[in-house]
Automatic annotation (TrEMBL):
InterPro entries: NAD(P)-bd_dom, NAD(P)-bd_dom_sf, Polyketide_Oxido-like. GO terms for molecular function: biliverdin reductase [NAD(P)H] activity; riboflavin reductase (NADPH) activity. Residues 7-195 form the NAD(P)-binding domain. It holds the Pfam family NAD_binding_10. Gene3D superfamilies: NAD(P)-binding Rossmann-like Domain. This is NADH-flavin reductase.
């Protein structure tokens, strides 16, 4: 596949580039900062803002799918996720690119309160709640589109994988807590979803208990 990856220099994005190239895909990798991604035979770097519609128009035509895995470092209010999505959706429609995978996370929509005690009680209220307010807006925009979208909601990120297969839920039962997933596991799940055409117009919540 030909993939346009937004947020390609972040943790999930960089792992996605490596795994996608190993699987034989070709990637256009968006980054806002020159030098953060090395071009290879499989990876072409596109330097620009994910909210700049003209930049998106230059790169989305001819792609098979778009992967949106943007991130931020700050804890204050943001509109990056909804602004980038608002710019992206009409460009994809105009270019005839119908497949979108967007990574949001635990804290979006009905996943709130399902990330384990540490995340639910400390990390979310103190550090990530503002970004998830905007990710809720992002998800709403995607759901209103007529694209073949998948919204992936990973559990809290961990540096080391735990034993066992990922748990995947498109409906969240009461009491469920998924407390860890690695960025590499998220990248693999993204590629599996694209290659298999799975989870179309669904919001899988993925991670380990």
């Amino acid at each position: 596949m030909r993939l346009f990856v937004l947020g390609a220099s972040g943790g999930v994005g960089s792992s996605l580039l490596e795994q996608a190239a190993a699987r034989g895909h070709r990637i256009t990798a968006q980054t806002r900062t020159a030098g953060r991604i090395t071009e290879t035979a499989a990876v072409r770097v596109a330097i620009g803002s994910p909210v700049n519609r003209a930049f998106l128009e230059r790169h989305i035509g001819g792609q098979d799918a778009v992967v949106q895995c943007l991130g931020i470092d700050g804890i204050g209010r943001t509109s990056l996720f909804s602004d980038a999505t608002g710019a992206l959706l009409p460009v994809m429609k105009a270019a005839g690119v119908n497949r979108l995978v967007a990574v949001t996370g635990v804290g979006a929509g009905e996943t709130r309160g399902h990330g384990g005690w540490l995340y639910n009680r400390i990390i979310f209220p103190l550090f990530t709640r503002n970004r998830y307010a905007d990710k809720d807006r992002q998800e709403a925009l995607i759901e209103q589109s007529d694209l073949d979208w998948t919204i992936i909601r990973p559990a809290p990120f961990a540096t080391k994988a735990v034993p066992g297969s990922l748990q995947v839920y498109t409906e969240i039962p009461p009491g469920l807590q998924l407390s860890s997933i690695t960025r590499a596991e998220v990248a693999s799940f993204i590629l599996d979803s694209l290659e298999k055409g799975s989870f179309i117009r669904q919001k899988p919540f993925v991670g380990h208990a």
